[in-house]
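Each record in this resource describes a single protein on a pair of labelled lines. An example record follows, reproduced without changes.
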Amino acid sequence: MLIQLWALLQVQVPGVPERRIQDIFKPMATPAEAEKNVALLTFAITGAIFIAVAGLLIYTIVRFRRNPRDTSNQEPPQIYGSNQIEAAWTVIPILIVFVLIGVSARVIAAVENAGPPPATLKVTLIGHQWWWEVYYPDYNVRTANEIHVPASPDGKTATYLTLESVDVIHSFWVPELAGKTDLIPNRQNFAWIDPREPGVYIGNCAEYCGTQHAKMYLRVIAQTPEDFNRWAAAQQQPQQIRGNMQQAKAVFESLACVNCHAVRGTSAAGSFGPDLTHLRTRQTLASGALVNDEQDLRNWINDPQDAKPGCLMPSMKLTNDELTQVVSYLQALN
C-alpha cells in the first residue's frame, strides 16, 4: 500500500481538485460511512481491551515487584487455578466476538441489500491487467480508468456497479466511497456508491494482480447531474476529425494500434485495450501512471515499458514522424 501511495503522489493532474489521500475516516458516501462506524466500534472495543490488559500488567509489575530489602530469595507462593478468572477470560472474549460479528453482518447486509434510489446510474466495471474498462449500458458509452457519476448530496441518486474481470482477481476500492469488492473472472459482483460532493475520488486495485498492480489506479469523478449529462452526451458522439487531421488519422489507422483499440466513427474497432474515442477528455494515461498531456502521451506510445514495465502494450517502434502524427491525432480525440 505504501508503494501504491508513493506512486500515486507522483502523478499530479494540473488544475484538478483531487482527494489524493485515501482516508476511510473521512467518508463521502453511504457505504463508506457505515463501514467507518464499524471500524470506530472495533477500535473502541479493542482499545478498551488494550487499556485493561496493559493497566493490569502495569499494576501487577508495580504492586508485586520484588522488595529490595527482601534477601530471602524465596519464590512467592504459587496459586494454580481460579474458576472465576478462567470463566471471565473465556466468556468475555466470546461475547465481544459475537458483538463484532453481529454488527459487521448487519452493516454488510444493509449495504448489499440496499434498494436503488429513484435515480440510479448503472455502470459495468471490468478489470484488466492493468487498467479498468468502464461501460455505461444505458448510454452505450465505453471509456477507461475514470468513472464519471452524478453526485448525490440529498441521497436520492446512486451509482450501481457490476464488477467483472477478464483475467485475474482484481479489487475495486475507493476508500472514501466504499469498501473493497473483488472482481472475479467468470463471476459478477456488485457494489454501489453515492458521492455526497462533486470532486475526484482516488481509488486503486486492492488485490495483488501482477507486475503493475501498484499502478492500477482508478478515478471516480463525481459531477453535478447537469455536468454528468453533458459529459455523457459528449461521450456518445463519434469522432469528427477535422480536415487537417486526416493525414494523422490515416497514419494511426495504418498501424497495429487498431487491433487493440477502438475509435468510434473510424475503422479502429479493437476491444483488447481501452477505447480511445474521447481520449483527450481523460485526466491520466496508463490507468493513472501518467498525466494525459502531449509529452507523457508521446513517451507512453514510444515506450510503454518505461512507464509500466510488463504492461501488455508493446512498443510499435515508430519513426519520429509517425510518432508525431499519432500523438497529434490522439490529442484531437476530444
In short: The mean pLDDT is 86. The longest strand covers residues 119-128. The longest helix spans residues 30-63. The radius of gyration is 27 Å.
